[in-house]
Automatic annotation (TrEMBL):
It comes from Candidatus Glassbacteria bacterium GWA2_58_10. GO terms for cellular component: cytosol. This is UDP-N-acetylenolpyruvoylglucosamine reductase. Residues 33-195 form the FAD-binding PCMH-type domain. InterPro entries: FAD-bd_PCMH, FAD-bd_PCMH-like_sf, FAD-bd_PCMH_sub1, FAD-bd_PCMH_sub2, MurB, MurB_C, MurB_C_sf, Oxid_FAD_bind_N.
Amino acid sequence: MKSGKRNLVEKLSGAEGLSFLKNFPLSSLTAIGTGGRARYYASVERVSALQKLLKELDGPFFILGSGTNLLLSDRDFPGVMIHLGRSFRRLRQSEGKITCGAAVPLARLVERAVAASFAGFEELSGVPGSVGGAAAMNAGTHIKELGDLVESLCMVDTSGRRRFFSKGQLRPSYRSSLAPVPGVITTLTFLRQPGGDPERQRGRALELQNGRKLKHPWQEKTFGSTFKNPPGMIAAKLIDQAELKGFRIGGAQVSPKHANFIENNRGAGALDILELIKHVRRVVRTRFGITLEPEVRLVGFTREELGELAPYAVSPPGKV
């Protein structure tokens, strides 16, 4: 960090809307229950504070949203975990337009959009996480992804500059960030499209939500889908056909309920879960000649721990 890691808190202590906690435990903030301590945990309440923070940072940092789609190493995180606070949970609706903060739960956006007959949002019902997290990986289903619905995006890049991108400038590819440049997404806008029908949409949303409750092991500690679906295939079916449901390493097991989910139901450490991911990947490749690509973000592991998964890992970034 430009001012030295020990001086960061002192240098930014006067920034309004920014607070720090030192040696902050992270495991309770991740859906699967892994993680060590963050050297600094920064809670951000203003875009201006986020700008100041990113401008000063040149060491490791990570944006911690709702904690889904994330496998965090149990070793201590050597930099700053950034959390967007309540001011980023604002959701405003005007005629034909929704403006949504990145920390808004995706479920809340879906509910509001469906009630206002914004067509397409019903297909995202039951998808976990925050809106910003969903934008950072273009979350969705085989029918609809968030990127299909976004009209524009505001963010702060890693130099601390505010940036605005219209729909045509975004990158809506499968399970990749919509943002064209690295940084932190702060706000997204959505426009009402024709074809909305609140009654029909609510019925569809309830159908999908109930279906996911039946199929997915949300009562267990799990980060969500482990692998991306290969083109024209379904990862869960491949794992099921490889007879891996219920397979366990340490406290982690392939969910008996849905093969593309991993459950932490016996106090698994992050390395147990990582080894299980690698094992499933090897078995599927051996059986079917298909190499599964992780959908879950792998953060804080060494190259040796990751092995063949190293190219897919999210390194503790500095200016990423």
